[in-house]
Amino acid sequence: KPCEYPAIKNGKLSGSLEYGRYYYFPARLGQYVDYHCSNGYSTPSGDYWVRITCSERGWSPEPKCLKICQIRQVENGYFSRIRKNFYKEGERVRYVCNDDYRTEHKDGEVTCTKDDWSPPPRCIRKKLRWYLHTMVISGVPPIAIRTEEKCQKIHFAHGYFTSQKEIFNLQETVTYNCHTGFVTPEGHETGRIQCQENGWTASPKCITIECEMLTLPNGDFSPKKGKYRNGDVVKFTCANNYLRVGPASTQCYYFGWFPSPPVCKVGASGCGPPPAITNGTIAGDSVEQYRHGDRMQYACNDELKLVGSKEIECVDGQWSPPPSCI
């Protein structure tokens, strides 16, 4: 079974493979590629470059880019017994608070997740007081009047308040943001709520972004769902007498479908002879005309290293980018 292009969230393949991803894949059993992670993320081993190989069960090891959570200053508190400056996704650490403050959650333990520390490390005052004033009228029992209505900050999944305040006054309006890949129920990146006498006008909420329904004229795809969410994979097939031009599958990400769906064509164009490369040769005999889907392989001269995929493909009249020899 060939290995499809490994779309690594928050990571990329080496330059030539990433540039020619529509043509270098699927890869064959035994072929390997190198990938690295974007700033703020780390490979599971911690190495900058990691090599993965196409095996019978897919890419091995599975390519991942883990979120990095920095050890930062906690207002009115601090991280305890830290052994490094940052932690990777899945790792845990504890924080403690200064006198007159307590951890927002009982044990003060936080976990590094894809959305940073969860729950966020915060220290809050040990008591939240309502301020009451007593009015005494001659001959009438004392009357307690609440003069300051307040709302407390809410911590919720996949989003955060833009304000650093913990307590908000009556009629105060607050803006909250959703993390990447999530939106408000109205479909926006930000939402607004207001503090009123009975509390907030609404609960802040961030939901997963969904991908639009796909179409493939003269072809089909599966699975078919009413809604597609982050991580869903769809595979394509073309009807009889039609050729697929483009990827065999696509995946739903927070920014939409990637790679773009293929098209099904009746007469995909052929290609002329494959391009020559410096300090390298093409395996096999060369002919004047090749059909859509034909593949050719390159080899480098002695003591030179091949950079990129050694195999190119004829795709509707054009060869995929060839490798280079260094």
Largest sheet: 4 strands, antiparallel
Structural class: mainly beta
Strand order of the largest sheet: 1-2-4-5
Supply Rg.
29 Å
Kindly provide the name of the CATH class of the largest domain.
Answer: Mainly Beta
Characterization of this structure:
- It is built from two helices and 37 strands.
- It is an all-beta fold and about 325 residues long.
- The strands form 13 sheets. A four-stranded antiparallel sheet has the order 1-2-4-5. A four-stranded antiparallel sheet has the order 7-9-11-12, with no helix packed on it.
- A hairpin with a 2-residue loop joins β14 and β15 (about 140-145).
- The chain has five domains: about 1-65, Complement Module, domain 1 (Ribbon), CATH 2.10.70.10; about 70-125, Complement Module, domain 1 (Ribbon), CATH 2.10.70; about 150-210, Complement Module, domain 1, CATH 2.10.70; about 210-265, Complement Module, domain 1, CATH 2.10.70; about 280-325, Ribbon (Complement Module, domain 1), CATH 2.10.70.10.
